[in-house]
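Look over this record before class:
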Amino acid sequence: MQSTSEFPSPQSNINFWLEPRTLVAYAVSLLALAEIIDLTIVAVAIPHIMGSLSANLSEVSLTMTSYIVAAAVCIPLTGLVTRKFGMKHVVLASAVIFGISSVLCGMSTSLNEMIFFRLVQGVGGAFLPSIAQSYISRSFTPEEQPKMMTVFSLCVVMGPIIGPVFGGALAENLDWRWCFYVNVPICIAGFLLIWRYMNNDKHDDVKIDYLSFAFMALGVGCLEYFIDEGNTNNWFDSMEMVIVLTIAIVLLIFFVWRGLLGKSVINFKIFKNANFVLCCLSMFMFMLMASASLAYFPTMLQQSFGYPVDTAGYITAPRGLIAFVIAPIVAKLIGTVDARRVMFVGLLTFGIGCFMLSSYAPMVSQSYIICSMLIQGAGMMAFFIPIMQIVFIDVPQSLHSDISGVFNFFRNIASSVGTSLSSTIVSHQMQVTYHDMGAHVSPYERGYLWWSQSLASGIPEQSKIVLAQAQVMGQGALVSYLDSFFAFGCGMLLILWLPFLLKRPAAGAPVHMD
């Protein structure tokens, strides 16, 4: 068992929340928040970017795809680069690259420039969440970790929530370019705090297997491209998508082969830890369902309920507000209650929130919407904080960076899969509902006759049919969104058993063991 003496000793004359190591934890968590926000903040500004860069929706979506692909390729390399160059040097370089590329993204005058700078931005931000998680696990005692993991969990949860809020407000009131410029002060503040207070760690003479890196980079890149662009290109109906997926599978098989030979950029020893593998599975499944249910919620509010873009973002804010309230409660609770039970409650609560979303009526009240947001936010925090602690059980400290990198890779890839899955379900259900409901738009249908009689007299029959078809399209879109929420709520219920397969942290015992 790892003794607490291996952790930096607290400075008794300084408040815990103001200690240098705590300030560094704030800084790396804030940088991680900026990286996570950038996955969603641009989405709501896409119409503005399309007009400014004279591009269509399919072309502008490549700016998001390039960022996600770059991040997905680099995240698993966290353990390798921190061992070779040191955690401090990596996080400082990441802050600089992320900040400069954010400015360049905001200054872009063409689509090609934007795609390239977003690619660089993805590389710069990829290591930040994993390093934040690894730094906290290394620098704080088991008794202190729940406090700081709560801060980090807030950043992970708040990123996808406040991204659309900030993005909508900045795009509407200033300019879409400020969605990128807003990263600069965060990067500067984080860089200065880390440069001043973070201790230098030792470097190892790590040999890089470039063949393994090539297999992983190209394989993960192709897989991420398939996930992000699949729905746009009709998945397996597109020969391009089939070829991309085939290449991804072949390259990833070769990557695993290199890893089994002991020649890999990722330490395959971490997969011998069954608890870690199950934590990755739990995180993947939860983030898939959560991202899928969150991805198009603001779009539904705009299309089906007529909310302005900024209001649609603001009305999701209660998810973040309740997270701030619930986080310290959950952190204290897992010290006395089985953390796996807290995770179970979190999954169940989030699932209930999804079912509430699926019950929206065309005239749903704002109070009901806000209530469902509060329930989902509480469920997310009840899941995230315990799993951030459980994932490091039975993990030697030397493997913390590897664990963080791979764990965050599964979180990142799950978000992409969830978003694409949601898009596919909504698109499919729109066609199904339009076909089913549109079949009843006929002068020979009793329901149509009742509806047409409620219209003003003197309207031609053909105009009535056009009005009816428009209403069918609107109602069909709403039904398709509600169907997707119901499906993801059922998905949450199906994974309720996963927490009880994980190891239980002993009350008051260290989380990290050798």
Observations:
- Residues 1-6, 508-514 have pLDDT under 50 and may be disordered.
- The two ends are 5 Å apart (CA to CA).
- The chain is about 70% helix and 0% strand.
- The first helix runs from residue 20 to 37.
